[in-house]
Amino acid sequence: MSKRALLEVIALDAEDAVAAQAGGADRLELVTDMAADGLTPSRADFAAIRAAVDIPLRVMLRLADGFAAGDVAALVRRARELRAEGADEFVLGFLDETGGADLGAVEAVVDALDGCRWTFHRAIDRAADRDALRKQLADLPGLDTYLTAGAAGGVDEGLPTLVAEAARGGEPGYGPTLLVGGGLRLEHLPRLRGAGLAAFHIGGAARPHGWGAPLSAEAVAAWRSALDAR
Length: 230
Known about the structure:
Elements: E1 6-11, H1 14-23, E2 27-30, H2 43-52, E3 57-60, H3 72-85, E4 89-92, H4 103-113, E5 117-120, H5 130-137, E6 143-148, H6 155-166, E7 177-180, H7 189-194, E8 199-202, H8 217-228
Parallel strand pairs: 1-2, 1-8, 2-3, 3-4, 4-5, 5-6, 6-7
């Protein structure tokens, strides 16, 4: 029998977090400002969410739209503030002007995380060379997950890449978990699960009425049920 799949859900506030946990989410990605594709939440928002639920929280470290690091010193300060508040899992990812990993920025932020686990997010889907990026990051402490759709255009476009990368799990740079997200739909699950993928990330799929409406525990539960049925 397949192992239970991990379901990660984007949460913007404590109300979202409670609904996501009630629907069966295993972990939350905490962000603010989805108009900018998800930025770092405040220390107070993190504290409120941490008090509201007891499942793991991964906190976004990103201060502006896009995949450039911007003000690295400010990112490091925010990381340290969140660590001081009790955050112990994170999400980040920065590219340089060539489309490679911005190692200087990533290493500076990771150093501030002091060994915490973290996800390199969908910046990998905009990388000039996915394989090269993985090898750039392979030795960084705490990296245990890549959030990816397999392609910038989403899972529809990236399915072949996801399946191919899933088969490379024992190779250098391919140890971290593939967390599939970005245009993910329920009908993608049979092929992805069949390829051995077991971690999934949803945002808009948990909000049938859009980002301006509350997160739906029922929508999360539908994903939980679909994953548990396989």
